[in-house]
Amino acid sequence: MSIMENKSNEMDAWVDNAISDYITPGQYKSFFLFAGAGSGKTTTLINVLEYFKITHKDKFLLRRKKIAVITYTNAAVDEITRRLKFDSIFQISTIHSFSWDLIKPFTEDIRKWVRENLNEEIADLEQEQSKSKNPQNKTSIDRARRIEAKTKRLVELNDIVKFTYNPNGDNVHKDSLDHTEVLAMTAYFISNKILMRQLVATKYPILLIDESQDTKKELIDAIFEMQQAMPEHICVGLFGDTMQRIYLDGKENLQNAIPMNWQTPHKTLNHRSHKRIVDLINNIRKNVDNKSQLSREEKDGGTVRLFICNRNSEKFELEKIIVGRMAEITKDQLWNDDKDVPGNSNVKTLILEHHMAARRMGFFDFFEALHEIPRYHTGLLNGSLPGVSIFTKVILPLLHAYRCNDKYELTKILKKNSPLLDSKLLKQSEDQIKNLKICKEAVDALLQLWSERRDPTILDVLENILGSGLFIIPESYYPIIARPKNDDKNIEKNESDKEFVSSNEELLAWENALSQPFSQIERYNDYLSENSKFGTHQGVKGLEFPRVMVIIDDEEARGFLFSYDKLFGAKEMSATDLKNKEAGKDTGIDRTNRLFYVACSRACDGLAIVCYTDNPGAVKKSALTYNWFLESEIEIM
Ligand SMILES: Nc1ncnc2c1ncn2[C@@H]1O[C@H](COP(=O)(O)OP(=O)(O)OP(=O)(O)O)[C@@H](O)[C@H]1O
């Protein structure tokens, strides 16, 4: 009987039992669970771990062993940790923090590795430099700077007592390692140091990796080597879908590299999406590996539409019209219920780059100003950028408490953050009432900035606080706002904040960012919140939403790794694309095809693709030729 005839919602249920068998202590079988979007890979991971807890937890605890679960984002770490009820038998982390935890005790090995690596990098750069015809051109000057910086680091290496690393931030201190170094070193140690392998096998005899298609290839190779060297002592389980490989570090054709003696269970059902969406993602996948999914029995509906729009349209207006059209087509009014209230939206809009959300949500100027500085990127996107937290973590909550008339919350924020209510100061004070009055006046003066629906600039807010001393302001802001004479009561003591501005370019970036209206901070903060109605095509990996609108616009995205224009036939392939294709290499179109698959497969019930193009005819033709959409599902706006 074929799979089609055998369709039932329980057809893949055997996979959970099989994996529970594979990870049974004493009879380890490493495995790769390969399955498409929405097939319940993460759900299976949780199910088998819950079962393991019931059956083997005590034995594991007695021997002080844990199961390591590695996943891609901090959000996924939190989600899996929560679903496993914070049980200490599981070590759930991102690959970066997992790697750092493994290597951080080995200071001398780290030093040696960094030294050798720096020597190699310097030698390579010097060799390239020696070939340079003009030492005054930009590339040569940049290269000379890099050689100088690396040589300086080499000299300072011996003085480092302890290396540091922050998996979630920018690592800019003298003793810090960067993300690439930590992963490369971990891979090297696992491949070359028996002690490290023994350590992993002793601590984490079961190592499970979710989203393994995007896990750094060197690490995957090292883990394969380790498992093959000690198959009885370590069980490796990879969960993944090669069609969802969207980052460049992931291992190409992972499925072909799986050791022969591994188990390779497979799932066919898509539990997430309705049939029409499953059919679409099957067709998007067709050119790549022809792996097809079935939808659940009861999910036999679903709506997909392609809206082809002129690149020069008034985009935000058009997107509002499109959600209206989707409401009409699907008869689901929640498409329409998009009131521009971030966090309260029923439609998830997927953009390619963050600035597209910044433009749509109204915090573009603030965001772009700071985005000019490459070392701010991580912090800006995860909300940890030093200097911004005074606005997002102190002033915004204060403003919110005031607007909600929540006096309890307002007092709590002041007590926690204001030096004017510092408990030591109050204890020593002879007139506490006076202190409280000063604080109240400072708060009133600050809130006054928003009176009569005004929208002060961020700088207005900073200057106000500096004047009243209501909150501590990071010292780095001082060159931007006039530093008060004979007054250093406000100097921030936090080291990282002290150093957040270190160059003239950075100063200019901040000056520009701070001159924007404070409402941009509010919107930026909304964007960072989990409930934002926007997400990037890449960032929503692993997530799902009932209604999804995918925005496609290469020009606005300004990216170079993806090209929807080429995928949709609106632009010719370049000579390099053709050469890469001929050589069987991964091309930009392949990458875009996979990204498109990830974005579309997030939708459960309804999916609107909004494609901005200069060539509507070509887009429509491709969409029909690829069999992605029916004529009746395409609207040229
Ligand atoms: N056996 C099942 N029965 C019913 N629903 C399921 C089952 N397995 C998974 N689901 C549901 O299907 C959806 C997708 O599951 P999950 O996120 O685990 O899939 P995934 O394979 O990890 O997806 P992706 O690769 O797209 O991130 C979730 O809403 C989940 O609750």
Task: Give a verbal description of the structure.
The protein has a 6-stranded parallel β-sheet, with helices on both faces. A 5-stranded parallel β-sheet has the order 1-5-4-2-3, sandwiched between helices. The protein has 4 domains: 15-103 and 184-267, P-loop containing nucleotide triphosphate hydrolases (Rossmann fold); 111-163; 276-352 and 537-636, Rossmann fold (3-Layer(aba) Sandwich); 364-528, no CATH class. Helix 11 runs antiparallel to helix 27 (588-600) and helix 14 (364-371) runs antiparallel to helix 22. The protein is 49% helix and 10% strand. The chain is an alpha/beta fold and 637 residues long. It is built from 28 helices and 13 strands. Adenosine-5'-triphosphate (ATP) binds next to helix 2. One of its GO terms (biological process) is recombinational repair. Keywords: ATP-binding, Helicase, Hydrolase, Nucleotide-binding. Pfam families: AAA_19.
